[in-house]
Amino acid sequence: MSLVSRLRLRRRRVEKPTALHDVETIPRRRTTLILALALGIAGLPLILLYLILILSSFANHMLSGPDIFTAKYSLQNWRLLFEGKLEPAAVPLYTFRDLLVIILNTFIVAGGVAVVVVVASTLAGYAFSRMRFRGRRGLMEFLILLHAFPGVALLIAVYAIYVWTLKSIPQSMLTSYQFLYTILARASLEIPMSIWLMKGFFDKIPWEVEWSALVDGASRIKTWWRILLPQVKPGIAALAIFAFLAGWEDLIYVHVFLYVAGNIKTLATFIEEAIGKIETAYLPIAAAAGTLYLLPTLLFFIFTQKTLLETMGGGVKG
Amino acid sequence: MNKSRLGTILFFLSPALALVLVFYIIPLILAIYIGFTPLRDWNLKAYLGKFTTQSYQYLFYLLTHDPDVSKVVKTTIVFTTVTLVVNVLGGLALALATFFMEERVSLTYRSLWLLPRLTPVAVYSLLWYYFFLGDASGTLNSLLLRLGVIDHPVSWGTDPSLQPEGSWLILIVVNGFVGVSFGMIIFYSALKSIPREHIIAARIDGATTLQLIRRVMLPQIRWHLVYVTIWQLLSLLTTFAHIFLLTEWGVVDRWWGTTWALYVFNEAFTTGEQGVAAAAATILVAIGAVLGIISLRLLGFKKMMPEPRGEL
Amino acid sequence: MASRTAWITAAIIIIIIIGAVAYYYSGKKGGATTTASPTTTAPPATTSPQTTQPTTTAPPTTSPKTTTTQAAPPKPVLTGNVEKDIVAIGKYLAYHGIHEAKFSVASAGDPNSVMRVYAIVEAAYRLNKILEKNGVDFRIKITTNFRRGGGDKLAQDFETAFQANKNPDIMANSYKWIARFAEEGYILDITPYVEKYQSFINEFYPSLLKAVEWKGKYYGIPQDTEARPLYWRTDVAACIKEKTGTDILANLYDKVKTGQVTWHEVYKYAELAVKTGCSKWGVLHRKGSAHPDLIQFIFAFGGQLEDPKTGKLVVDVPAVYKWLYVEWKMAREGLIPKDMMSWDWAKQIHPAVVCGKTLIWIGGTWHWTEWQTKPYCKGRPLTAEEVKKYFYYTLFPAGDHGDKPVTLSQPFVWMIASNAGKDNKEYNKYKDVYHMIAFLLVVKASDPDLIAIHSIISAHLPVTKKAAELINDKTWVQKLANLQIELSPEVKNAIADIVKKTVNEINVEFLANASKMLEYTKLTPMHPLYPRLANIFRDAVNYVLLGEMTPDKAVQYIISKVKADPELSKAVEIKGEIPKNWQFP
User: Fold this and answer.
1) Which of A123, A299, B138, C304 is most exposed, with minimal Cβ within 10 Å?
2) Are the C-beta atoms of residues C116 and C442 closer than 8 Å to each other?
3) A157 contacts on C by Cβ (under 8 Å)
4) Contact A32 B308 (CB under 8 A)
5) What is the pLDDT of residues B44-60, one digit of tens each?
């Protein structure tokens, strides 16, 4: 149908025979083995750490070494976690947290960030890729340099603006406003990078496709909507994932605008509280919460590999 | 015609620019302004109207008188450069290695190396804290003890005879494992986007893997190297989340484990002085922006931003 | 060329922002100046609920129906009698059409410390009962927020939330925040109320009342406190007695109390324990910070941390030197681990203490119940009987002969936000009355039985004499154990489990004994810069333990760090010199 998908089809066709008669002269299996071994050794600490994390989530204390053989394992931490409890079973009094609400809140923030980032950066990415205007290069440079400003210091100012705008918000809308503000503020941090990625995506689409539409008399906005957007779908998907992850793991914005200003919790603030003071914390619950926190993000990564590759590959091409 | 063109451009740019303006640029300027106020304890109403340079004077005095500052400066320089090199080259190596692997194995490895980026900072730091714990129960110590490499547990980050290298090594390792994944993802996808034909052609011409990497692959991902280098440089200069927890929990030496960003924010936050924090951030951003612009120029950013071709 | 455009864009933006800020402040001038005096603070954000009020203020015409025979009640004034006061307030507000007041309370701590919020819930229940009895159509409602972990994060969040008017109305937190909060006008100056409630305030231990005072005014009411005893392992002591014939524990409590056993003797005992092989270590203490446990050394060597006359912080050189010398010497002889400051709580410190690998542990009263609830040794918690069997406790001994033993408390206190009651109808009009209700809630939450319950279930010490008496009252404790006491169903439910687990004779006896230590208690300064000074002390302790610095070098280090910080050097006095002929041990 479109040129890109036809190109992709052709590439796939090229790939097939290479699997049979390897043109790349080195047998892939052997390369894989050697590299896997090397990377495995380099990544040994990581394997060890995450093994410990997952085992700890089932153990009666936080593991660190040989104690993985002596610890008592059970499903108790997970059960406690889903009941929203932060303490070991021996403690007769619990700090209750409603995990379902917490997960829902996390999804609202992450989903909201994803939507805002995708809309804003598919629009802007197109302009930077396809339109000639003054300050285009300077603006791109400026966008990447914004990253030099530490988020913690930015937070004070973002909060000041929040406080000032609060006066014009009716009491009944407050909670939705808090969510909206958190989402917009957090999304804005992602937008500069997303514009860069999205621009690269549009760069990959041949001009001919767009020209034919424009010659037929369609406006640019129409062309963008009808012709180009369908072709950057993989990019949109990948971008959404990146943005979703950013919203999912955000701590400082969520902490201030939702947790402090409204006692609305997300998974990240939940874990923050679970570890809390390391002097008295019951860490296996934190390990279970950490594992639970990893799962969706990891699944996202694995299931969206293909689209992700498309973004990154095209994304940062000049 | 011209008017409608402007309208079109605004249609495309305004949502993103409005958001960046309201939530990034205005706060940024406001934060720079806050650096010139005595803001403390979040008391916006009381202090935001007062102009003062006391935060800068305070920082300057501290930096010129504190006996520990020389340690902090050395740590910052070593940490930033070494971690930057590790992150960029490590990311590249990982990307190349996973590129040459079979897809299924490659995906497993990429997922593994991505884990640190997906883990909450506190949990990730906790794992490394127990990894380097200076007791026989620490992961590294217990492993080495069992292998017979050492005969008593070593305090890697706090034993005075091992400093400063011990602390630096821990900081670099902990941040390196997070940092490499950024380069890995970007480089890997960039490599994947190189037309297959180029690689096959080079192979048929009899290129070895090394030649293939140097002649065909690296030139094609030059832009990505620039992007990752600058992004990482700016990140390393300003972030301190992991380092904060590692020094707080005492697994690295207090001063050999403190970078400049952590130093000033610790100073500002133990007594709740946001004015000082903002002033410090301003200085940081100045340094970061200058380094960033220099690297953009050095790495030839202009050549990589060609004008759009067929504008109608 | 392109970057020139960027510069112009940036310049325009900067100009816009500066203009906006200037505009904001030109309009806000009046508002900004009124905030200077904390007690009159009227947070501008409250204007939004007010603007929505007119629709809801219509009802007043209905309220006189119930009170037609009475004249309009006068504006209430506190008299010192809770029952009278709450009835007067209730009648007054009900007359003006307000039949409910909402308050939020927040606190933090171990789960055992939930009474830090439930005491207010119970107080509201009790006040509501009084109102009901007197036929007043007015009720108080409480929302709670209890957080796990330390209070510091909660306090910082309180500051943040205050800007958006989302802070809790009443908070129980460490007294150390009073100075900062009072300076910023975040909490209510309750001196006028306290003056009316003299007999109530006289119930509290005088030493604790110092913790709620700032610049001569009251900003809080003590909620709980603790002592930091020195714990001695009885099994290690028995081992020493068996091997050397020295009976360390014989009458030790009194010997410490009278100053007969000082740190010189403690050193010798620790040495005995290690040399005989009875325990691996002589002394263990907190990691990662010098505050508050190790600060006791300064007081034990007769030093001070704050000059009561000037209000300045003090580095008392002789006392600090002696403290660092004790740590340095002990680490050199292997009595304290060199890397003590980087030990892990869960894997090293707690197991070493609970499994008897040390003779002495510089701990706190809360450890007594913590050891009973967490599996630190051999995979299970100790029973109350075991804790009693293995741990002997004394005051923190004097430094030198002639000095006095000490202990250190960090009381939690009730603080009332200066915008307390902000979520209620016509807040701006009846602000004073809402503040009074918040104060009455705190007064009622300080009922002896509530303080006593909190003390027993969380192993904190009571803050009033009456509560201490109640803890000594065996029949009352027995009633509590069986939950046969007057409590609202909500609170009773919440604490039922923990009461069963912790209310027993051994724990109550421990509390009663530990309460006696309060006579010797010291407080650390409330000074806003004290945390910075404490951080410097922490680094110095770490350096001497590691052997990186000798004690005199470390003292020089502390002084140089203080002088390097322009704010700190203004706020700190350095007193005295390193003693010349001092011998230790």
Assistant:
1) A299
2) no
3) none
4) no
5) 989 988 999 999 999 99
